[in-house]
Predict the structure.
Amino acid sequence: MADANATELFTGMLRESGMPVTPEEMQAEWEAINEDQDSLITNDSAWSPFWRLISAIVTKPAQWLVALLVTTVLPNTFLRYASGAWLDVYAWGVDVVRKTAAYALGTVTFTRASASGALVIPAGTVIESPALNGVVYHVLTTAETVIPEGQLGAAVAVRAEQAGAAYNLGPGYYSILAKPVPGIMSVSNGADWLTSPGADVEDDEALRLRCRNQFAAVGQYHHDAAYKAIISEFSGLRVDYLFFEKDGPRGPGTSNCHIMVESGIPPQELIDAINAHVRESGNHGHGDDLQCMAITPMPVDLTVTVYPVVSAGAERREVLRQAVEDRVRSAWRENTDFDVARVMPLSRFSFSRLAKELHAELPDLRSVEFSRGDIVAQLELPVLASLDVSLGVEA
């Protein structure tokens, strides 16, 4: 659906072509046609029921046609406004296909109380997260795993219950066994638990960016657009999440591509796969030396103090504290369940904006304080090294 400016633009295009677009313009056109054709219809006054009926019968379908052209046909003729199936057809025309959804794959650490004997963790064991914005996320173990005697824990391969980027949760979220496993004391996902991030079906914005990039990638070698086209074919990668360093970072003739994903730092397995595709499978220009790498993390220690409204009781205060923590983690890309501005490389992260977003969403929030000022990132992505969200105590 085109925005208001686009609607005005396309309406103007129709008007410039000589097509009447408003009921008043159409009425004037019908009257002119009636006069030019020496029609026998003479009771064409504004008060004539017959003429009003004839005009309405003609005008209504014409209005439908104008609306169809302005809101659907013309916008989907242009890459800037095309969406859905129309955009898929446009993408096909530039040899691009919308990427499908992908399941998050990774490892979760199971820890037991005693190292005596072997302990079996069945395939299909379900680990879940606390509720995030009313949604509980599940991952399942992909194969039976044995913790051998003398070992307290093991990293067990898991797969998300459903495909999608929402399952790429931050460290510590997957911490609840849906059904107890005898002998297991705790379960948790670590900071680098993902081996392959989950991804949603490519949205229109991301697909539009790839289609637009194709126009600059005609040669397919030796320039940013060509490598963006190659790298962004991988699931979960967007054209605007690729950052090039082209000043010979590893010596003359070298360049680096720093990569991030929706959940932040990409797993090394993904980086290795991209480098193998680019460097070893012939998908580079003659003499090119491009190396892909995960975006450099910028660790941030953050303390947040939450002041609830005076009328909030103990339960509401704790609910508010957890709601603030979940939204702060979302801003640091540890979940995707909340509509807040997220950290990016080469940008400033504004805590005043985050505070405004928290106030807009949480009516029980009276005030919020952050332990530091804005974060200005260069070619690096801010990540939470530590986060402490606590309730403030009035003096």
User: Anything to note?
Assistant: The mean pLDDT is 89. The longest strand covers residues 297-308.
